[in-house]
Every structure is written in structure tokens, then in C-alpha cells.
Amino acid sequence: MVRIERENDSFIFEIVGLHKLWALTSKLIIPIAHIMDAYPNEQRLDFIPGLRMPGTHIPGLIAAGTYILKDGIIFCDVVNHDKSIVVELRDEHYRMLVIEVEDPCMAIRFLMNR
Average model confidence (pLDDT) for the chain? Predict the structure, then answer.
């Protein structure tokens, strides 16, 4: 799961619990100006057509880490699909984040109400 906090002109996406081990990352810092959109994730992550580097993928259970796809690099940290959101980025290493959060509606509002 990912906890989102705001610090000055950036959002801090902190990966918590065992998710740190699966994603092999503990924190991402993204400037507010680089967040283009945030919305509920409607795509199942049972199969991700790309190269996982590094991370963990167990179809139907865990999608965590960095994935290199034909249209860019994404970061995933999802165990519970129903609590996952997509955060579209610009001018960042990742094209998007697909992350599990405690309350998807609240997280989207928090990210989009700058």
C-alpha cells in the first residue's frame, strides 16, 4: 500500500509494510506540477505486457515494482485491485503510477486539489 503526503511543492508516495519488499522501493517524490491526472484504476493487473525490472509479479495477487512497457515506464504497487488508482505523470522517469491506497476517492481528491 502507498501513503501519500504533501511536502512543499511535491507529493511523497511512501510505500509501506511488506509492499517495500515487493516493489523494491520505499519512496517516490513527485513535484506537484508533474502530476497530470489521477483516477480509479479499472485495468486488471493480472498480466502486464512488459518487462519487470525490479519488482514482484504473481498473477492475480501482486503487481509491484517497475515495468517497462512499449509506451513508457510505469510503477505499480497493487495487491487489492479495488483500492488502486492511476496517477499520470509528465517529465518524470515513470509515465504513470498504479498504486494501492487506503481510500481511493480521498487520495484522488488530495492529488487533484492543489
Answer: 90
Report the Cα–Cα distance between both ends of the chain, in Å, rounded. 23
Structural domain span for residue 37? 2-112
Cα separation, 11 vs 85, whole angstroms: 15
Taking only the tens place, the pLDDT of each residue in 47-62 is: 676 767 777 877 778 8
Pairing verdict, β 2-7 and 10-15: antiparallel
CB-facing half-sphere around the CA of 48: CA atoms within 13 A = 29
Q: What is the value of pTM for the model shown?
A: 0.91
| Count of domains observed in the chain | 1
